[in-house]
Design brief:
Blueprint lengths: L4 H13 L3 H12 L4 E10 H18 L7 H22 L3 E11 L2 E11 L5 E10 L1
Antiparallel strand pairs: 1-2, 2-3, 3-4
Helix pairs in contact: 3-4
Length: about 140
């Protein structure tokens, strides 16, 4: 089957919204049947101090799960898509604590990174999703 950026982005979002490791594993297996490689990783902390760690976690998870190879272009694509996703949420998250999950998906040259955020403000939590795409 042929997939484009829309399908790959949807897979990344589904991975970012997975409730637990078991659901992540089930989704990865399901998507692998369609030739889509996927990964997910949790993160949390104060937004400004967490940006670098979030990008690093996304790149490491993508390599560990075989979504990308250990090359500059592929690592850079994950880092760039992750930074794009972060920039979409930045206005909501600046100065606050965030936590959630990063979902990464790839089919051939389409690579998407989705970041689900729980944004803490006292007990009034906000949520958001940032999404980035790169061609590899």
């Amino acid at each position: 089957m042929e997939y484009g950026s829309k399908k790959v982005a949807a897979v990344a979002i589904k991975m970012a919204l997975a409730e637990n490791r078991e659901e992540e594993a089930r989704l990865k297996k399901e998507f692998a049947g369609d030739g889509i490689r996927a990964a997910a990783v949790d993160y949390g902390g104060e937004f400004i101090n967490s940006v670098q760690k979030i990008v690093e976690r996304a790149v490491v998870a993508a390599k560990r799960e075989g979504v990308i190879k250990e090359t500059h272009p592929e690592e850079g694509a994950v880092a760039g898509a992750t930074r794009e996703a972060l920039s979409q949420i930045m206005p909501k998250a600046l100065g606050l604590n965030v936590g959630g999950k990063i979902g990464i998906a790839r089919w051939h040259d389409h690579l998407s990174v989705a970041i689900f955020f729980g944004i803490g403000l006292l007990h009034l939590d906000e949520v958001g999703i940032g999404l980035g795409h790169r061609a590899v």
